[in-house]
Amino acid sequence: MSQSKTDTGHGSEPGTGTSPEPRENIRTGPPKLVPGMVIDEVRFAVERGKIREFARASHAGDAIHTSQREAAERGLPDVAATATHVVASGHYRSQAEMLTTLGLDITRVVVGGTGWDYHRPLVAGDELTGSRTLVSDEAKTSRSGRSLRLVTLKTDYALPDGTIAVTGRETLIERG
Q1: Among 59, 113, 149, 165, which residue's CB has the most CB atoms within a 10 Å radius?
Q2: For the segment 64-88, what is each residue's pLDDT rounded down to a tens digit?
């Protein structure tokens, strides 16, 4: 079942005495990025308490998110996560490192879009590994003539057996 919800500096490396490769941004050109490259990984558990927090915050009134009995009556082994639950993984990974890897200047970045494709429901007790990869890195010009950089990323959230439970997409726009 699949459902959609709608997306540096220079210096010595410690202990080496060598300078790292500079990270460039839109002003000087993008770093050498290759579609398919892994940007980062994150591991986390889908927790019943966090599901309850998301359900409350998003006003998800369906008892499937808070009642184990209701979830069991609907064929699930535990309470179901809300549709945007995987955004919690952002708290477990370094967004600053991601921006550095991509060569983005946070002061000029806006989110262009996010979305998720669920291949199966997430439930309390699931253990996920999210692998974020680069889909594309494009330079464009806005209607007003400003340079734009659009970076599209994909995160596959896999269960321990390798099955992809959720695929997330995000587009970041760096304004020149």
Answers
A1: 149
A2: 999 999 999 999 999 999 988 998 8
DSSP 27-65: TT------TT-EEEEEEEE--HHHHHHHHHHTT---GGG
DSSP-derived secondary structure letter, 69: H
Domains of the chain: 3-46+94-175 (3.10.129)
pLDDT for 21-72, tens place per residue?
Answer: 444 455 555 568 999 999 999 999 999 999 999 999 999 999 999 999 999 9
Contact 164, 143 (CB under 8 A): no
| Rounded Cα gap, residues 22 and 36, in angstroms | 21
- Please give the order of strands across the beta sheet that includes 164-175: 3-5, 109-118, 164-175, 147-158, 127-141, 38-45
Return d(Cα 115, Cα 135) in angstroms, integer: 14
